[in-house]
Amino acid sequence: MAAEVTVYKSEVKPTWCPGCGDFGVLNGFLKAVKELEIDPKTLVVVSGIGCSSNFPHFVRSYGFHGLHGRIIPVATGIRLANPELTVVGAGGDGDGYGIGLGHLVHAMRRNIDITYIVMNNAIYGLTVGQASPTSEKGMVTKSTPEGVIEWPVNPMATALSAGATYISRGFSGDPNHLAELIKGGIQHSGFSLVDVFSPCVTYNKDNTYAWFRERVYKLEDESHDPTDQTAAFTRANEWGERIPIGLFYRTEEKLTYEEEEPVLKKGPLVKQPLGLSKEQGRALLEEFL
Ligand code: SF4
Predict the structure, then answer these.
(1) Which H/E stretch holds residue 171?
(2) CB-neighbour burial class of residue 58 (10 A; exposed 0-12, middle 13-18, buried 19+)
(3) Which residues, judged by CB distance below 6 Å to any ligand atom, belong to the binding site of ligand 1?
(4) In a mutational test of the pocket of ligand 1, which residue from 95, 126, 141 has the highest number of ligand atoms less than 8 Å from its CB?
(5) Residues of the chain above pLDDT 90, percent
(6) Which of 5, 56, 84, 160 could be joined to 45 by an S-S link, Cβ 3.0–4.6 Å?
(7) pTM for the whole thing?
(8) Are the C-beta atoms of 120 and 93 separated by less than 8 Å?
(9) What is the CA 20 to chain-centroid distance, rounded?
């Protein structure tokens, strides 16, 4: 019998502000793993620092709440040690598109088979409202009283140029649609980005639910072909009165890093002999303790 969503919910209640977009992302995620019937014992959720990075606490699975901007290195390490696990990164735009952007670009070009959900609210919420890498030019925040003077990161275009093989964007106001994107990302063999418009109701008064509802449209409603990279770039650059959500791009033509890595041809590292005696293993551990 298929598991209920409650199987994947931990006993820890989310600490987010009432109405925070991250609730919708959590609901979409729980629906996705339930429908895929993923065994919680084979699921690992990795986060960094930020409001959204509390995510693993609310999921009944393995979890790793790490350092700011370091979701990708930790998720990569877990995945390479044991490619039999489903590895999901979950964090915010400051974490992923600011301090963690270098890691992200390399994971995408390597095509590591992880799914990375970025709860993008265009603000640093945990530190009470500074401009983030996706804040729009001109946006007034606590750190930019005269408006942001920089151009924002475009996550979709960045992922396309870095070589990610599954690139999508959802809206936390539509968790059912988002669940389908997350499911597709988890099922995809290769690096999957699921960027999510996830409003910060406390500190971002510009990009609200209402603001997004007036603008977002679904790519699948407009016959977008997600195998067409050029069309995906055109959609990625669309912003303003109309903003696309859905699956921008997907390709199966690239092998994953795990498939290419010769060491993993003998099976998961966790199942391979260390090549050390017990004494040598103990001595090595002691050297690091
Ligand atoms: Fe969500 Fe913003 Fe509250 Fe953080 S500060 S929990 S992002 S609404």
Answers:
(1) strand 166-171
(2) buried
(3) 16-17, 20, 22, 51, 121, 125-126, 200-203
(4) 126
(5) 94
(6) 56
(7) 0.95
(8) yes
(9) 17
**Which helix (H) or strand (E) element contains residue 76?**
helix 71-81
SS3 6: helix
State the burial class of residue 54 (Cβ atoms within 10 Å of its Cβ: 0-12, 13-18, 19+): buried
What CA–CA distances, in Å, run from 115 to 82, 135, 259? 15, 24, 16
Beta bridge partners, 116, equal 89, 193
Structure tokens at 78: 């877990």
Please give the distance, rounded to the nearest whole angstrom, from the Cα atom of residue 17 to the centre of ligand 1.
5
DSSP string, 131-152: E-TTPPTT--BTTBTT---SPP
pLDDT at 195: 98
Residue 192 scores a pLDDT above 80: yes
Q: Which residues pair with 43 in a beta bridge?
A: 86
